[in-house]
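QA checklist item 7 of 12: single-chain prediction sanity check.
[x] sequence parsed
[x] length recorded as 271
[x] structure emitted
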Amino acid sequence: MPELPEVETTLRGIAPHVTGRTILECVFRTAKLRWSLDPALCYILPGQKICKVERRAKYLLLCCDQGTIILHLGMSGSLRIVPAGTTEQKHDHVDLIFTNGQCLRLTDPRKFGAFIYTNSEPYSHKLLCHLGPEPLTDAFSGEYLHALSRGRKLTVKQFIMEQKTVVGVGNIYASESLFRAGIRPDRMAGRVALKRYEILVRTIKEILLQAIGAGGTTINDFNQADGKPGYFTQQLQVYGRGGDPCLTCGHPVHSQRLGQRSTFFCPRCQF
């Protein structure tokens, strides 16, 4: 599914095209994504201007005159800027058509995404209010992770993937970060030392910034807002390489399931 770098890349792709634009029409072609779409939005949104676009975790916030649209891309969703009137395809479920003739189109084959509107403070919304710190901020530090992990009875990979711990570190980037930090993903979170958490935090930030710079990771479905694929996949060192030789030591990369997720690591480089 799209992870933080892919969502950030999407934000950067659509923001110049929608910021300051006035919504002419809202079109729904399905009644439900992850949650039901509110048909009243087809009357509430037209006439409103999008003042700014923000990201919180993997959610995109389209801040309008009178409220905020909260978007989530789900497992395989994407946003595109297309000319208004462009023929819709099978999985094109939502259009925001602007007065300048452009359209923001939400495509979601699996319908696990979200399109929600609130006229209250968006960061107080139930989807956002319990989220952990952003990984690229100073609030996310080795000291923070070390203190939060004490006494936890779960693996370090599951720990850093919890959205209450830190947002946006999904399966791909968790595997890559733990590899570069030299930490086995199945080590108990409460048994990782402070110095190793400091290395892990630094590595997470480096990898996320590199992935954003490369336009995200294309594994199955993700493409950028302009339709081009992300290229961080070319820099993956362990994810999806089960059985292949480790790029550092040559030992076969191990694959196992942790928390119902595929996990990849080198048993020689990570301990």
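[x] summary fact logged: The longest helix spans residues 194-214.
[ ] second reviewer sign-off
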